[in-house]
Amino acid sequence: MPGPSFCEDGARQFFAYRLTGLFCTLEVPARGQVSIMKASFRAAVLAALVFAPNWYGLEFASSSAGVKESQTDTSPKPTVYVSDFEIDALPSESGNRMAAAPQVGAQEPNDDPRKQASRLVEQMSTKLVAALRKAGYTAVRMHEGDARPDSGVRIRGLFAEIDNENHWRRAVIRTAGDSGKMQAVVSVANLAKPDQALYEIANLPGNENKPGAVITLSPYVPLTKFDVSKDADEVVFKSIAARIVNDLTALLNANPSAISQ
Predict the structure, then answer these.
(1) Would you say the pTM of this structure is higher than 0.85?
(2) CA dihedral 224, 230, 236, 241 (to 10 degrees)
(3) Domain range annotation of the chain
């Protein structure tokens, strides 16, 4: 009868095969709408999550415990909390003075870039909540100032862009019709663990914590990035939301103990 070492090797090979199948079957987005970063990047991130036992946000069963059965459709799913993404905007009444985007739902003139910024935040949050509920999760939207739960999963992030000097910056909506390129930077974390900052304000001369500031993304928090335009419609956000939820479900299916209930 094969020994423990043989069984463990076989389990690892089987799981590697499952991971390969997952990455090879990722749906390709419609051209001109949204594109995800290279599959190799996402594969590396997910592999890191699976094999690192103390990853920020999610914990995984030790390999010595053996391969556990995948989560089924009837298995309880964690509650997922969706936080509004960060984005900045220029107010229409001042082209040279920057101001943060208003709260979601605030009324702004049609020519105010802040209205466009609010729309983008609204689309991201609502499409994520809808996709999660469709997949069978209990999804709760969180706004700034809401009390932080101590269990479940949290999806949060920001819209960011790269400047001409290859610096990351918080994305800024400069006009009501802004159609520039940016990226949705997404984090999925276990609320049973302490929060970690997604970014820091870069230590550069003249750089301040203001809209459009140069930032340094955290090397300790796994982040997934999606290309998106500043005038993206709801179809684009629906596609992004579906991909985020599919990745979360695949992770939980492969590791039922990843989230502490």
Answers:
(1) no
(2) 40
(3) 80-245
